[in-house]
Write a structure and sequence with these properties.
The chain has about 375 residues and is α/β, with parallel strands linked by helices. It contains 14 helices and 12 strands. The protein folds into 2 domains: about 5-180 and about 355-365, Rossmann fold, CATH 3.40.50; about 195-350, Rossmann fold. The protein has helices at about 15-30, 50-65, 65-80, 85-95, 115-125, 160-170, 210-220, 235-240, 260-265, 275-285, 300-310, 320-335, 335-345, 355-365, and strands spanning about 5-10, 35-40, 105-110, 130-135, 155, 175, 195-200, 225-230, 250-255, 270-275, 290-295, 315-320. It has a 6-stranded parallel sheet with strand order 2-1-3-4-5-6, sandwiched between helices. Strands 9-8-7-10-11-12 form a 6-stranded parallel sheet, with helices on both faces. About 45% of the residues are buried.
Length: about 375
Amino acid sequence: MIKKRILILYSKGGGGLQHLAKNLATGINKHFGKTVTAESFDPFFETAGIGNLLFGEIYNFFLKKSLTINSYMVTASYLLKPDKNPLVKRDISKALNKKVDLRTNAIICTSPWLIEGVFAFLKKTGLKIPVIVYVADFGEGMYDGWFHKKVLAYFTPCINAKEILINLGAKPDSIKVTGLPIPKNNKKRKDHNNKQLRVLVSGGLYGSRRTKAIVASLVNSNLPILITAVCGTNKSLYKKTLRLQKNNKLRVFGRINKKEFSELVQNSDLIITKPGSMTIATAIACSTPLIVISPSKIMPQEKGNLRFVIENKIGYFCKNNKGINETVEKICSNQKLAAEMTARMKKLRNFTDTKRICKAIFSEIRINE
């Protein structure tokens, strides 16, 4: 029997986009691998063309070196709209030419920068392949490049994102509100000393520069906490944060994979993070309450992510380190607060059900799993 084939596209510009694409591919292969095969692929960074050089390699270089310098790169990228750039479209088409064939039953885009390039490729080749767009953003601040009139269906995490797509021109019945896929972790939470709150500080894939300051403030407090810090690919941040170790109160990790991150979230009582969509979804899947720091000025979509956390009462918003320490202290002295947020998160568990989400996708592209 010939398996159905789905190609899931992402771009390395954001850790959440990779996370989303790989979770979808893993879920499809795990639950429906006998009849369907899925592969995640990054066409934006797979070529050595001029478009990739301008909007890919240079962007990624600064992203890893300095988030301050990168703020200008991201701002420039949004203004220049790389998804509309003919050089970028050409490079994406070149990459897809090596991956897409007559056996491909559907293409799923998890990055707005790729959508124009995908349709340019399909027009050039004459292939009739349905395209689905999976939006990772929760609404406010969404990039308008998520919308394309030829998209078969949109999948969104919440109603706010659906409303924005409708305002951009998408048909209401083409938009499905399904949540975000997070693989189930069947491991039980590790027992720990209930007198100490386990706090995870996540800096995202590239390591937010605020991570060190947050960790330093918590380490120097007298709060009864155990701290775990994740610094991502930022080696400088990792080394600086490592120097803060004091009285076995702190563990520091560099880059870790999504399974390891999920286990850290599951075995924490609280996570302090920027409002990344997939980090929020992982916290919901693990029922781990959130403290969310101010959204990045260069990531406008994070405003909608923050709004989702506040409206669903599954976390606190803190603008500065003093506010973080005060909120952690409040939770330490009244663990009922954390228990209430955990209970609300458990009610949202269906939000991250990968198998259910995969079935919804199959129904749109008429694949019988």
